Amino acid sequence: xxxxxxxxxxxxxxxxxxxxxxxxxxxxxxxxxxxxxxxxxxxxxxxxxxxxxxxxxxxxxxxxxxxxxxxxxxxxxxxxxxxxxxxxxxxxxxxxxxxxxxxxxxxxxxxxxxxxxxxxxxxxxxxxxxxxxxxxxxxxxxxxxxxxxxxx
Length: 152
Hints:
CATH architecture: Distorted Sandwich
Number of strands: 11
Largest sheet: 4 strands, antiparallel
Number of domains: 1
Helix content: under 10%
Oligomer: single chain
């Protein structure tokens, strides 16, 4: 078992009183992010509408890691709510508020209220790569076969 990574987090004024992201079970990969909306100002997403929902948090993710913002499967299945740019990336050098771009792919409007769990945050290592120009690439059995080329 690896030691947990410590990440400094700052709660903004509109995030006061809300829980910090935390794993819900010992085997959870993600930590739930909650909506830091004013009580009197929920966000209603019409079908195919999207919104950047504030979390009231800023993070200091260490160099060599990223935060991945992913959809919650229950919201996706029950209401058609997902993260529009899934997974969203929080870079190690970003210090602004974490916001979640939600989109309603369902058929009915969905209202998001303060404190609702809206996405999950996964902290993952980043591998740096340098792309180098090449005149040719090695051959593979797939070659240039694109979408669906390997079957169903």
